[in-house]
Amino acid sequence: MVARVIPVDPFDLVIFGATGDLARRKILPGLYRRWKEGQIPEGSAIIGAARSDMDADGFRALVGEALQEFLPVAELVAETVASFLEILNYVTIDARGDGGWAELAGLMRKDKVRAFYLSVAPALFGDIAKRLKERGIAHRDSRIVVEKPFGKDLETARALNASLASYFHEDQIYRIDHYLGKETVQNLMAVRFANILFEPLWNAQYVDHVQITVAETVGVGGRGEYYDHSGAIRDMVQNHMMQLLCLIAMEPPSRFDPDAMRDEKLKVIRALDPVAPSEIVRGQYRGKDGDDYLTEAGNPDSRTESFVAMKLHISNWRWKGTPFYLRTGKRLRSRASEIAITFKEPPHSIFGESNQWRENVLVIRLQPDEGMDLRVMIKEPGPGGMRLKDVALDMSFAEALGDDLDIPDAYERLIMDVIRGNQTLFMRGDEVEAAWGWVDPVLQMMEERGDVPEPYEPGSAGPEGSLMLMHRDGRRWREMR
Ligand code: NAP
Q1: What is the DSSP code (8-state) at residue 351?
Q2: What's the gap in Å between 120 CA and the centre of ligand 1?
Q3: Ligand 1 center from residue 176 Cα (angstroms)
Q4: Which among 41, 31, 242 has a CA at the least distance from the CA of 119?
Q5: Are the C-beta atoms of 208 and 359 separated by less than 8 Å?
Q6: Substitution candidate for ligand 1 out of 120, 132, 225, 239 with most atoms within 8 A of CB
Q7: Beta-bridge mates of residue 396
Q8: Which of 90, 232, 234, 446 can pair with 451 through a Cys bridge, CB separation 3.0 to 4.6 Å?
């Protein structure tokens, strides 16, 4: 089954940082796939911009190579690749200089949607926004897309918001969190708000606890030095995990529209209690032969965490008493992202002591194999009395909707949302600031108590302390397979 394509108006999309890793690996291959699906209309143009000196043909060659490198051969249809490369152009621009802007202005067409994707370091956001505005390249209805990291604390996030706000209105700013573009994350909203089944149970009375896991098998590798200034809390918790938590915990918005959704997410962040020192565990993978965080970070004294687990409490009527456990890390046993909602036991078992109760768990898998399963108790078939067993009501999207279902990558969906002018899946400035406002004291607490991350073996499920965080409460993490 091929995903239904919703047409958009022809557009001019300028990608700053078009020669960089993100543009070559995600943005341009994503745009090619949308072109192949017929979603990018004729008359649209994609303009690369960076300091590297090259002409349009040089850029087309670079993009052609990127498509070969980052897309499966089966997706590369020669004619389609050629026609896609035709709509590309390139301008040499230094974000902080004066050259190239007039040329860029000359390439923009009058009656087209204009979007500017800033796939560059955040330190350049203000410089680019200023020049786009002052040179009349961006208009009131143009859109500007910015990448993470959106600040490294509340102060820097506020400064970034302020510098963008000097030239663009909030309804023009698209702060990307690619987790929100994942099919399953949106399905979480469909499951919650398009079914009567779950919502009555979606509260502290029926939910025992929630687990959110984002596990990676890779280490920090070549990005060690950069990562060492960030760590798992800044890199994953402040943005992606906080967004997932908001979508699970938020109240139903009155409409599926950008501000209604974001208002509700903001309320969740504001209702988060400060995390207690005993309810956070940080770790670092420590192995031999270079498979070691300190070696990869190039910093033998590093106290930056490559793993974090924490227990969070939301102080509102819906969730008081239901803990949310978050864990994320690098060099773990498996690459798996999932949300698991564990429901409470029935108040009374009519089947006697011999039957061991297993909880009902709703698992939402973000990767790999996007899908959901609901674990329910059934009777084991055959004679021998009433023996219970827990099985999964499994819904793999690929199986349920057809093996050849073409699920667009998160970036593809999000870029098309920018062109459509739909901000629902993008973070609003106050949301980002609220998330930093919650994270900042956590980071300060770590700093003040001189916390040293607990070592864990590469390929394990994380440090011992993370297991204890659950065991203390008589619970356990779901297994990383
Ligand atoms: P990168 O590989 O270092 O690329 C940076 C790009 O910016 C290059 O095209 C570079 O080209 C251009 N650039 C640098 N200085 C410039 C200037 N003064 N004026 C104009 N262009 C300039 O970085 P990246 O990995 O693609 O990341 C880009 C942004 O996305 C960063 O904010 C990063 O944090 C974020 N991000 C990246 C990833 C990822 O997977 N890579 C994931 C999430 C977020 P020239 O040298 O030719 O100018």
Answers
A1: T
A2: 4
A3: 15
A4: 31
A5: yes
A6: 120
A7: 371
A8: 446
Spans in the chain with pLDDT lower than 70: 1-5, 354-355, 397-407
363 vs 414: CA distance, rounded Å? 24
Q: Which amino acid is at 426?
A: F
Report the pLDDT value the prediction gives residue 368, as an integer from 0 to 100. Answer: 84
- Per-residue pLDDT, 303: 95
Task: Tell me, using a 6 A CB cutoff, whether residue 119 lines ligand 1.
Answer: yes
Any ligand 1 atom below 6 A from CB of 17? yes
Cα separation of 40 and 90, whole Å? 19
How many CA atoms are closer than 13 Å to the CA of 125, on its beta-carbon side?
26
Amino acid symbol at 445 = M
Tokens 């902080």 found at = 96
For residue 134, give Cα distances in angstroms to 97, 108, 130, 131.
13, 15, 6, 5
Secondary-structure breakdown of the chain: helix, strand, coil percentages, each rounded to the nearest 5: 40, 20, 40
Q: Residue 185: its pLDDT value, please?
A: 85
**CB count, 10 Å around CB of 357?**
12
Q: What is the reported pTM?
A: 0.93
Atom number of ligand 1 nearest to Cα 52: 47
Q: How many residues belong to the chain?
A: 481
The catalytic position among 178, 240, 313, 348 is: 240
C-alpha–C-alpha distance, residues 352 and 342, integer Å = 22
- On whether the CB atoms of residues 174 and 146 are closer than 8 A, the answer is yes
Question: What was the pLDDT predicted at 405?
Answer: 58
Task: Say yes or no: CB of residue 218 within 6 Å of ligand 1.
Answer: no
The preferred substitution site among 24, 51, 54, 118 for testing ligand 1, maximizing ligand atoms within 8 Å of CB, is: 51
Q: Is 139 a catalytic residue?
A: no
pLDDT value of residue 4? 61
Residue with tokens 């004679």: 383
Q: What is the pLDDT of residue 393?
A: 83
Q: How far apart are alpha carbons 470 and 478 in whole angstroms?
A: 10
Three-state secondary-structure class, residue 227:
helix
**Cβ contacts of residue 317 below 8 Å, gap of 6+?**
none
For ligand 1, the distance from its centroid to the CA atom of residue 265, given in whole angstroms, is 29
Q: Is 96 in the pocket of ligand 1 (CB under 6 A)?
A: yes
pLDDT digits over 203-261, tens only? Answer: 999 999 999 999 999 999 888 999 999 999 999 999 999 999 999 999 999 999 999 99
Q: Where are the beta strands (DSSP E) in 226-317?
A: 280-285, 307-312
d(CA 246, CA 267) in angstroms, rounded, equals 9
Cα-based torsion angle of the residue sequence 31, 33, 34, 40 in order, rounded to the nearest 10 degrees: 70
